[in-house]
């Protein structure tokens, strides 16, 4: 599917505010509301836009402690095995296979250090995890809600 500059701008505007009306978006990209709706429908139908979601502030729900954990895995551990473990743990915000020494990088959020330690121990208890290396987040410097050009 071809995505033109207008589609990219629409995507960026939806990433910034998925509740924006088609009319609001249209005024920003010089299209009518029905034209924006047709483009969004096409982007959804082709899987470019997979859905709309609420972004929750972790601090507002009390999950202010976070870490990035490198997983080192045994033998022929597959990405599917790592993904299954990640999905079973509510503290996992993201999980990625990576290049370098580690096999995967897992982003955890928890209420406090004790909660983080419990989540980390659950990861370490997986039979294919041979070791981990963690980095605790001290402060967030930049966070982007999605892909595409900035809407600022």
From TrEMBL:
The keyword Ribosomal protein does not apply. SUPFAM superfamilies: Dimeric alpha+beta barrel (SSF54909), Winged helix' DNA-binding domain (SSF46785). InterPro entries: AsnC-type_HTH_dom, Dimeric_a/b-barrel, Tscrpt_reg_AsnC-like, Tscrpt_reg_AsnC/Lrp_C, WH-like_DNA-bd_sf, WH_DNA-bd_sf. Pfam families: AsnC_trans_reg, HTH_AsnC-type. Gene3D superfamilies: 3.30.70.920, Winged helix-like DNA-binding domain superfamily/Winged helix DNA-binding domain. One of its GO terms (cellular component) is cytosol. Keywords: DNA-binding, Transcription, Transcription regulation. This is AsnC family transcriptional regulator. One of its GO terms (biological process) is response to amino acid. GO terms for molecular function: sequence-specific DNA binding. The keyword Transcription applies.
